[in-house]
Structure formats: structure tokens, C-alpha cells
Write a structure and sequence with these properties.
This protein is an alpha/beta fold and 916 residues long. The protein has 39 helices and 17 strands. Helix 31 links the parallel strand 9 and strand 10. The longest helix is centred in the first third of the chain and has 20 residues.
């Protein structure tokens, strides 16, 4: 029996004879192979492939089969390619995937398979196939060009959602409404950690007779980086139709609506998007609103009715909005009658949503608008609609609403079938990038995967891991929360979410996740350790001890577990035992910050202060950027030189009158502590609250006597607390009765009108004033114009704490210096070696001021020189930025800009504290 066909026609067995042979013996390999040849000659490569597969199962010779398959493959591929023009892509994919089961994809097969997968929307599978197709650069292949184009489109249009603004005669208010969106977006970027987050804005001008269109165009030109679409109707169509037109031009998964005379408050985008991010089962979320002028007088019934029907306090998924049919456009609803009510009933009955009791939208009272017309009713105490007459139009509206609700049905686009597979492939590719150490590349792939299929918990979990590796903490927290929302029984996601919440200071929020993680994975030592740490911070020491003992029993050499045990022993008053455990932890890892910090704390508790000071020095050597060791070392030295700080006042009796800042001294170092205390102090004074703070260097330097922290208060992050926004004249003390945690490195604009009070807080200490005046006098002795430059190094050089090179400052000085009268240069730096680069200017520095040293506050000379400067050049550091806030007379402030690679002017009271 021949085991291989000859492809030439002269050698081919007659097909009739072949069929006769097969009739007598269906296992005749030679006949099968010759018929396969005839089919191939006739253009049926797929039929030929099936026959040689059948023959292979009979003869079992792999080499023979592969030679035959390679000879016939091009015919089969041409046959499949013919299916593409008539659009039979699923059929083509089925054939190609069958071929790929026994022919390793490469060359034309791989390219055709990638092309078909790309057409079907299976981007991840297409991307994975590119190396097998021999595609090495985008220009080499249309497939790669198409994939690059799709990725570019996703980046350019990958917004979190769209704000739709219907506008009519809004020239006097719409710019302020647009500005409020930018402020809310800026807050969302800071709070979520997604500094590249974008929203799209669609303004639909409903044939305004004023200059609304011109105002929007001018605003768009002034903000070229903000994505904005302007739709101008040539006829007035009503707010509902305008909103539908805006939705048609929307981008991204979420929709917000804003009337052109109302405003988003700072937290609106973050609160609403965050709620939907964390709860994938929800279709929409509503918030409370702030009614202009009459907010405190609006009846509960009217507030509830307004919250349920007002479009501007709503965030809805775009696909969920599509299921409602949008805003009704039939004649009875136009002009502007009950279209928002009908829409609200549709989302209430068809979708699943939640209301959040936070006021995030400002409902302006403008002459003639709904709030202006209805204010008497809203404060009257009567229920909405009570006493109103029913007419034919409203009856028609009710009929149409019910007809509309009856007709609505949920549906999904056909491409949904392929989303899961595409996302899975991208997640797998991200795993390969992670294994290769390319965490940024893995992060980008995972962002694509979660955008394509937001319902896969694996994508969110891996995105959380990638974000955490890249120190994008807020994004990691959001991603793990999404993973937990999709898969509540996923213990690792709960552990990681609990860890981040704990590290962010929110032990109360971390507790339920870590409890559940231990229930789901009782053998996880790390879950028990984190639960123990959380319980300890919440004062539940007995339960903490139980879980910590079990964690240590499982992993006795874990340094973190031992240092936590030392802290727990110290909490119980056993300083000697704590010291012994801390010494053991240092034996396990001599360079571990927490181990040295635990030893230092134990030594302090035993009143062995010289040894404690040495231990804190060792902790600082392990991690110079941690605020705790900086503060504790400084307090020991300051007390040695100056004695104890002022006696703390008595705390307020009522929790509602208390405001705590218990992380002060641990979050950040001196400059950042100034920001934290200053903002919290302004808020406390604005609302008549008593601020409670732990020991920190400010007590010595500024003679502060704030009460020490009392019983624990519920913790709020700085984003949730909104202290800066809470300084406005009409703000309520929503943060009262809470412990605030954060770094307060946002925009200083909201603080600007409180600048004088802020400065007063930090100049009232006698020793501080004496030191500042001495530094100022020494600087004035040497020159007429004082230029102070801050060059931060030390623990800088990562993440947002990037380092600007000396060359930028030298270039700036070279242009500035000849224009000044008798200038003197002062260099403030933690790296004296940098001073040599400025030798031509004969600079002063701390060692040359000749001031009495302040043990524990060796930074004072530099800080005072920055505060006293006539011209100040800072680094991207809270230390020098805070000095610029306290400098009340400088005529010029500059800072490094990473994009321009130069120093640029800035206004201390109208700028972000740190630049990305």
C-alpha cells in the first residue's frame, strides 16, 4: 500500500477506481489519498484536508501527513478567504480553528486567522497570533496597523464617561457649569489615582437666542485638552431631545447630565463613578443635591421627589440608559414637560440603582427656572402635586409613560459573545509581561481587558496587582473593590483590598474584608496577620492577639508578624517583652524599618531615651521617607533641648464637636505635616470644632496646645472629608466627629482666602519667630535681594517625588542674576555636594548662617531661608511648597516643570502642591 500520494496528474489514480476500492475497503489509505488529490485540484482544499486526516488516522505516519497537509494548505486557505467578501466570518473562523488544531499556525494561516479574529472583535486572540504570523512591526502588516489603530482609538476615546449638557439661553452660566466639571474631574483624578482619567463633555445648544454657542466655543478654545463636542440645534427641541442628542455623541461607559445653570460639586464624579465601579450589579446611582438659597427649607417630600427625578444628580451606565429608551420625545413631553419624570420612572422600574446621601450637585435658582417657579411649593409642606388639576396633556403623558415602560426590553449587542474571550487572552498576555518584569506593559493590557469586558473578576484582580506594583494605590484599591464586587468569595482580592484600606488608614473599612478573607481561607497566615493588625488599630486587642498567635505559629520567621507582636505587647504595657521580641525581629532582618521602629518604641516606653534615639536613627536609615521615625526622633531631641511642649487642652466632650488628625506625625514629614495641620485647623476654626492631634514637632515650634486624641472616631479619607471644600461660607461641618487621614497635596485654590489665618497659625511660637528673625537678619546682611533655591534629594527620586536637575536652576539663575541689585543666593538642600555647582554665585547655606542649632529641627535654617526669600525657586516637594505658602512678601515664585524641562512661575495659593 502506498503511504503517500503523488501530486502530478499523470500519476493520479482514476477517481472512479478509488471509489470502488473504498466501497470494498473503507480503510484503503491509497484511495483516500488519491481522492484527496482530486478534490485539491478541484479547489476543495478543506475536503482534501478532511480525507488526508482520515488517512492519517489509519496509517499513523506524522511526516507523511504533514507533507500532504502543507501541499494542500494554500488551496484550503484560498477557499476560506473566499468566505470573507460575503461576510461569512464565523464560518471562516470555524474552518481556520479546525486547521490550527493539527497544523501549527504560521505564515498565511496565522495571518488569516488573526485577520478573521480581529474582524470578529477577538482582539486579544489576534494580538496573541501576531508573533506566529511573523509580524514584527506595525508597518509590516495590515493586522498590526489595525490593532494599533484600535488601541489608539481606545486611548483617545477611552473616557470614563460623558457629561451631557442641554443648553438654552445659558450664556451667563454655562462657563461656570463647565468649570465645575473640570474641578470634579481633577478631584476624581486625585482620589482614584488615575491621573489620566478623562471625561467627554457634550453641550447641545437648543437654538439659544443669546451667545451660548460662542461662550461654549470660547471655553473649548481655552481648554484644548478637554474633550468637548458642541451640537447646535437650528430649532428648539426641548431638554429631553437635547439630552438624547448628547447621549448619541457620548463616549465611555458612564453618563452624567448637567443643566447649563447648575454645577457639579467637587466630589460628584468620584462618588458616583466610584459607586458604580465597586458595584457592577448596579445600573445607576443618584446623590443628594444642594438647593440654592432654600436648601434648609425644602420639605422632605419635595427633596425626595427631586432626588428621584432630577437628571443632574444621576450617573447611569450608558448601556443601561439605552435599555430605558432615553428621554421621551413625543409631543406631550415637549416643550420640557415631565420628560425627566418619565425617564426616571423608566430607570426605576427597569434598572437597579442606589441613592447616596451626599450632596454633590448644586441646583441653582435662576430667574424663571424650575427651582425659581417651584420654590414656594417646595417649602410649603404640601406633597408634590397636591391640589394640582389634571388635564388631557398630563393624562396623555401618563398613558405614554406606561406604554413606553411596557415596550422596553433588555438586549445586548452581538459582539458581546466575544468580549470574554478577548479579555481572557489579554489577561494571559499580561501575565507573560509580568513574568518578564514589564509591569507597565502588563498594566496597559489589563486596562484594555477590563475596558473590553468589565465583568471578569480576574481582569480586575490582576489590574489591582499591576497597579500596586506600579505604586498606583488608589487605582489598585478601586480594582480590588471591583474584583470583590464581582466575586465576593475571592479571598485574595479581599486580602489585598483590606491591606490597602488598612495602609490608607481606614481600618474600619478593612475589617469586614479581612474577616471574610480569614473565613474563606482559614489557613492563610497573611490574612490572619492583617486581620490582627486591623483589630489592634481598632482597639480590639484580645481578638487581635488570638489571630496574631495563629499567624506566627504558621510563619514564625516573618518579621512583620514579630514586629506586630512587639507592638501588641507594648499596648498591653509589657515593654521588656516587646523589646525582646523586637530584638528577635531585627535578628531575622537587620534592615527592616518596622523592626527598628518597634524596638525604638519599646525603649521609649521603658524611658531609655538615649537608646530609643539611636533606634529611631537606625529606623530612619532603613527608610528616610517615613514620617513616624522623623517625628519621634525630633520630639526626643526637642524635648531634650527645650523641655516639654505646652500642656494639651481638654478635649471637647461631644463627639460632634471633635475633629481628629491621629495620623499627623506619621503621614509625611515636616512640610506635609504643616499642610495637614493647617487645613484641618482652618476647618476646625470655621465650624467651631476642637482639633485633636498626637505629639508632633508643631507643638514645640508653634506653641500649640491642641487636645491629644481621645476615644477613637470614625475615620475619613481626605477625599471623603472634603475639608478644603468645607471652608466655603455655606458649607456644613460634614467631617465633624471624624478622624481625618491624608496628605493634603491637592490644589490650594480653595484655601486662598484663608492665607492670612494659615500663616498666623504657623508664626505664633516664640522660638519659631526668634529663629526666623535671626535667619532673615543674617540673609539681609549679605545682600539686597535674597534668592532661595531648594534642591531636594534624600528620599526623593520616585513616583510623584521626582528630582529636577541642577541645570534647570542654573539656567534660570543665569538669566535672572544680571537683572538684580546686589543679589544673594541661598541653597537649601539635604545634599551639600550640590552646592558646588553654584559656586560662581558664592551661595550661602545652613552651615554659613551661624545660627544656634535646634536639635531635632535641623531643617529650620533652610525652611526659614525659603520663607524669607524675595525670589523663591522650589523643588517638587511639600517642604519648599509649604514655605512658599508661609512666605508673604516674595515677588516671584518658580518651580520645575517636567514637561517643559525648566522652571516656571506659579502662584502658591492657586496651584497643586505637587506636580506629576
Amino acid at each position: 500500500m502506498r503511504d503517500e500520494i503523488v501530486m502530478g496528474m499523470a500519476m493520479r489514480m482514476d477517481p472512479v477506481k478509488c471509489r470502488c476500492l473504498l466501497a470494498d475497503n473503507p480503510a484503503d489509505v491509497t484511495a483516500l489519498q488519491h481522492i484527496a488529490g482530486h478534490l485539491c485540484d478541484a479547489g476543495d482544499g478543506l475536503g482534501a484536508m478532511r480525507l488526508i486526516r482520515r488517512a492519517y488516522r489509519l496509517h499513523g505516519n506524522q511526516d507523511t501527513f504533514m507533507r500532504q497537509a502543507e501541499a494542500m494548505l494554500h488551496v484550503a486557505l484560498n477557499q476560506i478567504s473566499a468566505l470573507l467578501d460575503p461576510g461569512r466570518f464565523d464560518e471562516a473562523a470555524t474552518h481556520l480553528e479546525w486547521l490550527a488544531q493539527f497544523i501549527p499556525p504560521s505564515g498565511h494561516l496565522a495571518r488569516l486567522l488573526a485577520t478573521v479574529w480581529l474582524i470578529l472583535g477577538r482582539d486579544g486572540d489576534a494580538i496573541a497570533m501576531l508573533p506566529k504570523a511573523g509580524v514584527t512591526a506595525p508597518a509590516d502588516s495590515g493586522i498590526a496597523v489595525a490593532l494599533t489603530a484600535l488601541d489608539t482609538h481606545r486611548r483617545h476615546y477611552g473616557v470614563i464617561g460623558t457629561v451631557v449638557i442641554p443648553a438654552f439661553k445659558a450664556a451667563s452660566t454655562i462657563a461656570e457649569s463647565l468649570d465645575s466639571i473640570l474641578a470634579a474631574l481633577d478631584h476624581h483624578r486625585r482620589a482614584s489615582g488615575r491621573e489620566d482619567a478623562q471625561v467627554h463633555i457634550v453641550v447641545v445648544d437648543d437654538c439659544s437666542p443669546d451667545d451660548t454657542v460662542d461662550v461654549v466655543r470660547a471655553w473649548g478654545r481655552a481648554h484644548p485638552d478637554q474633550s468637548l463636542t458642541l451640537v447646535a440645534n437650528n430649532q428648539n427641541r426641548g431638554a429631553g431631545r437635547a439630552r438624547n442628542a448628547g447621549v448619541a455623541a457620548a463616549l465611555g461607559p458612564y453618563l452624567w447630565f448637567l443643566d447649563a445653570d447648575d454645577m457639579f460639586l467637587e466630589r460628584h464624579l468620584h462618588v458616583t463613578a466610584g459607586a458604580l465601579d465597586a458595584n457592577p450589579q448596579l445600573d445607576y446611582v443618584r446623590t443628594d443635591m444642594l438647593f440654592d438659597r432654600i436648601d434648609s427649607q425644602v420639605s422632605a417630600a419635595w427633596r425626595d421627589a427631586s432626588i428621584r427625578t432630577y437628571p443632574c444628580n444621576l450617573c447611569i451606565r450608558r448601556e443601561a440608559h439605552a435599555r430605558t429608551g432615553g428621554f421621551p420625545e413625543e409631543t406631550p413631553f415637549w416643550p420640557a414637560t415631565a420628560d425627566d419624570v418619565a425617564y426616571s420612572r423608566a430607570i426605576t422600574q427597569q434598572l437597579q440603582g442606589v441613592k447616596i446621601g451626599i450632596k454633590t450637585v448644586f441646583y441653582r435658582m435662576s430667574p424663571g427656572n424650575v427651582l425659581d417657579r417651584m420654590q414656594d411649593e417646595m417649602v410649603s409642606g404640601r406633597a408634590p402635586g397636591e391640589g394640582a388639576q389634571v388635564d388631557g396633556r398630563f393624562m396623555a403623558i401618563e398613558i405614554l409613560v406606561r406604554r413606553r415602560l411596557q415596550a422596553l426590553s433588555a438586549g445586548h449587542d452581538t459582539h458581546e459573545r466575544n468580549r470574554t474571550g478577548t479579555a481572557t487572552t489579554l489577561i494571559n498576555l499580561a501575565g507573560e509581561r509580568t513574568a518578564a518584569g514589564d509591569h507597565a506593559g502588563a498594566h496597559a493590557l489589563l486596562r484594555q481587558a477590563t475596558d473590553i469586558d468589565p465583568h471578569q473578576h480576574t481582569g480586575w484582580f490582576e489590574l489591582g496587582m499591576a497597579s500596586h506594583r506600579l505604586a498606583r494605590r488608589a487605582e489598585a484599591r478601586s480594582a480590588f473593590a471591583r474584583a470583590v464586587g464581582l466575586r465576593p468569595l475571592l479571598a485574595p482580592a479581599r486580602v489585598n483590598l483590606g491591606l490597602i484600606l488598612l495602609e490608607d488608614g481606614d481600618a474600619q473599612a478593612a475589617l469586614p474584608h479581612l474577616r471574610r478573607a480569614v473565613e474563606l481561607a482559614p489557613g492563610s497566615a497573611n490574612a490572619r496577620f492583617l486581620l490582627a493588625r486591623t483589630l489592634r488599630r481598632l482597639g480590639q486587642k484580645d481578638e487581635a492577639e488570638e489571630h496574631l498567635r495563629q499567624a506566627i505559629a504558621s510563619a514564625p520567621t516573618q518579621v512583620e508578624y514579630q514586629t506586630e507582636w512587639a507592638g501588641l505587647l507594648l499596648d498591653k504595657g509589657d515593654g521588656l517583652a516587646a523589646l525582646s521580641v523586637a530584638d528577635g525581629a531585627i535578628g531575622l532582618s537587620s534592615g527592616h524599618y518596622d523592626a527598628h521602629a518597634a524596638r525604638a518604641a519599646a525603649l521609649e516606653a521603658l524611658d531609655r531615651k538615649p537608646e530609643a534615639l539611636d533606634a529611631w536613627e537606625r529606623a530612619i536609615a532603613c527608610h528616610a521617607g517615613f514620617g513616624e521615625a522623623f517625628t519621634r526622633r525630633a520630639l526626643l531631641l526637642l524635648e531634650r533641648q527645650w523641655g516639654p511642649p505646652p500642656i494639651a487642652r481638654t478635649a471637647a466632650a461631644s463627639p460632634a464637636q471633635r475633629l481628629a488628625l491621629t495620623r499627623l506625625g506619621s503621614n509625611g514629614r515636616f512640610g506635609n505635616q504643616i499642610l495637614q495641620y493647617g487645613v484641618a485647623r482652618l476647618y476646625a476654626e470655621r465650624h467651631g470644632l476642637t482639633l485633636e492631634t498626637p505629639p508632633w514637632v508643631g507643638r514645640h515650634l508653634f506653641d500649640l496646645d491642641d487636645p491629644l486624641p481621645g476615644s477613637p472616631l470614625p475615620r475619613l479619607s481626605e477625599e471623603e472629608a472634603g475639608l478644603a471644600a468645607g471652608l466655603s461660607a455655606d458649607a456644613r461641618p460634614e467631617a465633624a466627629g471624624h478622624d481625618i487621614d491624608g496628605y493634603f497635596c491637592g490644589h490650594t485654590g480653595p484655601l486662598a482666602r484663608h492665607a492670612a489665618t494659615f500663616r498666623r497659625i504657623f508664626t505664633q511660637g516664640q522660638r519659631w519667630r526668634d529663629s526666623f528673625q535671626a535667619a532673615q537678619a543674617r540673609l539681609r546682611e549679605t545682600g539686597e535681594t535674597v534668592i532661595s533655591v531648594h534642591l531636594r534629594r534624600g528620599d526623593f527620586g520616585w513616583g510623584p517625588f521626582w528630582v529636577a536637575p541642577e541645570a534647570w536652576y542654573l539656567e534660570w539663575l543665569e538669566a535672572l542674576w544680571p537683572t538684580l541689585s546686589n543679589p544673594v543666593l541661598y541653597i537649601a538642600t539635604d545634599n551639600p555636594e550640590l552646592i558646588a555647582a553654584f559656586a560662581r554665585y558664592k551661595p550661602l547655606h545652613a552651615a554659613l548662617l551661624g545660627l544656634p542649632p535646634v536639635q531635632g529641627a535641623g531643617f529650620l535654617e533652610d525652611f526659614h531661608a525659603l520663607c524669607a526669600a524675595d525670589i523663591l525657586a522650589i523643588s517638587n516637594s511639600t517642604f519648599s511648597f509649604t514655605a512658599s505658602l508661609l512666605n508673604d512678601h516674595a515677588r516671584s515664585f518658580v518651580r520645575p516643570d517636567r514637561t517643559l524641562r525648566a522652571l516656571v512661575p506659579y502662584a502658591p495659593w492657586a496651584s497643586p502642591v505637587l506636580l506629576g
